[in-house]
């Protein structure tokens, strides 16, 4: 039987610490807001042996409307336009007040990262379902998720060393229960997975930032059984622990069957049957990438439609190829996505070959001249057959069978769970009667539900983490 150790943190010289469950961007954002702005001590409980969660792998960027970067690049955007794009993508599900907050606070989130952590976020991409370019990333060598998570983690790690009473980071710590008395949070129980000891932290405030459940076949079977056999981009830690605990406490779990299948996960030619896939970032399509069907050798969809629409098109048009499509990018895209493409080529997920080799290697049912002619018809048109503007301009002015392209196989993958514990605009967890579940109980990021409805826009996952992670911190500071 596991032994129990009780750690009473109420006697710290500073006020009682906030316990943050999970160290993806939502957890890191709430932690940094609490310690940097309010000097409120925090304890992070992370069940893995390192910080970052799935956020560290995000590769397209973070959304923001009416930002300084957009102004510098002459992009006209407003929170109202972003809100409209979000609600359209949500298809009548979710909670519009949360979507409105996401859009209105988006520029504050981006500018917080820029000012507090010296992140450039100076480049933009227009992803599927967006009316304008609003997905921010930095010019530099690091992918956006890794860059943002690294900057926020570094600040907390430095504080944990210099001021351990302000910041404590407990890795290998799996939360098993939340103690609630008289509808008030009183503590957190967790297991130290290195020694199997059960520990309890006494606290009045808990922020769940534990992520989604996209790796859990058990939960997929319960909420979306038709997706159980699809590959996933989620790390093995993404098992819905937070949703399970919050449900037992009485939280209202909403939209749990709304699970986003991302249209483009790379098929690794060295391990094509692997259940886990590297994500082929939506920015690859946003900056000019196109999709070809191996069955026809031709395009079949507006690659910048929403993720659910592109996914369905692949599953219909590429069914004879086991739902595998070909992602094709021209040489003109290389400078914009050099770091991504260098990484993908290093992992052998993408290769650079001529169109003639494309036809030969993938046994397309058309000639290389026919493929070049097919692509040429889209390279000069203001809008193509699928209503996408100038889709292949990065392939060059005159496309021939000798034109070089970057190409890789992609397939739909379980990527993001839109559903979770319902929250309000203060990031407080809500019960099934629409009331606050318990004083001091908050949630942010993928563990929560209502922000995205039926379909999440690319670039809004990192944004959700920053907006509602910071909101939880602000709510705790204002209550106390």
From TrEMBL:
Keyword Oxidoreductase (UniProt): yes
Cofactor note: Binds 1 FAD per monomer.
UniProt key word ATP-binding: no
GO MF: FMN binding; fumarate reductase (NADH) activity
Cross-referenced InterPro entries: FAD-dep_OxRdtase_2_FAD-bd, FAD-oxidoreductase_2, FAD/NAD-bd_sf, Flavocytochrome_c, Succ_DH/fumarate_Rdtase_cat_sf
Superkingdom of origin: Eukaryota
Signal peptide (residue range): none
GO BP annotation list: cellular response to anoxia
Any matching Pfam family: FAD_binding_2
Catalytic activity: succinate + NAD(+) = fumarate + NADH + H(+)
Primary enzyme class: oxidoreductase
Domain FAD-dependent oxidoreductase 2 FAD-binding, chain residue ranges per copy: 18-462
Biological role stated in the UniProt entry: Irreversibly catalyzes the reduction of fumarate to succinate.
UniProt cross-references to NCBIfam families, sorted A to Z: flavo_cyto_c
Protein name: Fumarate reductase
Record organism: Naumovozyma dairenensis (strain ATCC 10597 / BCRC 20456 / CBS 421 / NBRC 0211 / NRRL Y-12639) (Saccharomyces dairenensis)
């Amino acid at each position: 039987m596991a032994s129990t150790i009780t750690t009473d943190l109420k006697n710290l010289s500073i006020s009682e610490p906030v316990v943050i469950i999970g160290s993806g961007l939502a957890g890191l954002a709430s932690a940094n807001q609490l310690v940097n702005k309010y000097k409120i001590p925090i304890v992070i409980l992370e069940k893995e042996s390192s910080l970052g969660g799935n956020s560290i792998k995000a590769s397209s960027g973070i959304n923001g409307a009416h930002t300084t970067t957009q102004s510098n690049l002459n992009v006209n955007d407003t929170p109202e336009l972003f809100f409209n794009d979000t609600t359209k993508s949500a298809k009548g599900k979710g909670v519009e007040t949360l979507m409105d907050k996401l859009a209105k606070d988006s520029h504050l989130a981006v500018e917080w990262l820029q000012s507090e952590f010296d992140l450039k976020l100076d480049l933009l991409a227009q992803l599927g379902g967006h009316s304008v370019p609003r997905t921010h990333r930095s010019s530099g060598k690091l992918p956006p998720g890794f860059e943002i998570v690294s900057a926020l983690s570094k600040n907390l790690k430095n504080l944990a060393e210099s001021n351990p009473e302000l910041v404590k980071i407990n890795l290998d710590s799996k939360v098993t229960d939340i103690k609630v008395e008289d509808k008030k949070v009183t503590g957190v129980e967790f297991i130290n997975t290195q020694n199997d000891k059960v520990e309890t932290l006494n606290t009045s405030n808990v922020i769940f930032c534990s992520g989604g459940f996209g790796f859990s076949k058990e939960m997929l079977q319960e909420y979306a059984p038709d997706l159980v056999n699809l590959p996933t981009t989620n790390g093995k830690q993404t098992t819905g622990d937070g949703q399970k605990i919050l449900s037992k406490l009485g939280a209202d779990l909403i939209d749990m069957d709304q699970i986003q299948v991302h249209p483009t996960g790379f098929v690794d030619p060295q391990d094509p049957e692997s259940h886990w896939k590297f994500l082929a970032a939506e920015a690859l399509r946003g900056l000019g990438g196109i999709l070809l069907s191996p069955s026809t050798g031709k395009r079949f969809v507006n690659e910048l439609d929403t993720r659910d629409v592109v996914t369905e098109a692949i599953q219909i048009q590429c069914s004879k190829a086991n739902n595998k499509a070909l992602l094709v990018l021209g040489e003109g895209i290389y400078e914009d996505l050099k770091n991504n493409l260098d990484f993908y080529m290093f992992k052998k997920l993408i290769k650079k070959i001529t169109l003639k080799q494309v036809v030969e290697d993938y046994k397309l049912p058309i000639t290389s001249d026919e493929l070049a002619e097919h692509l040429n018809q889209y390279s000069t048109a203001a809008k193509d057959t699928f209503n996408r503007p100038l889709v292949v301009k990065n392939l060059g002015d005159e496309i021939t069978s000798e034109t070089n392209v970057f190409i890789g196989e992609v397939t739909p993958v379980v990527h993001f769970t839109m559903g979770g514990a319902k929250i309000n605009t203060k990031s407080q967890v809500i019960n099934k009667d629409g009331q606050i579940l318990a004083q001091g109980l908050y949630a942010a990021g993928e563990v929560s539900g209502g922000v995205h409805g039926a379909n999440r826009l690319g670039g809004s996952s990192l944004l959700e983490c920053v907006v509602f992670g910071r909101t939880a911190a602000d709510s705790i500071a204002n209550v106390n």
